[in-house]
Amino acid sequence: DGAGPNTLHVHPLLCISLLSLLLLPLSLSCHSQSRRKELREDYKTVVETDINNANENIANLLQNTSCPALKHKLHNCRVSTDRDFVSSLHLLSCKMKKLSVSHTDKLVRSLLNSLGCHCPVEKPTREPTVRLTKRTATRRRRRNQQKTRRETKKLCKSKAILSAMTRCYQMLNSMQMAS
Question: What's the predicted TM-score (pTM) here?
Answer without folding.
Answer: 0.69
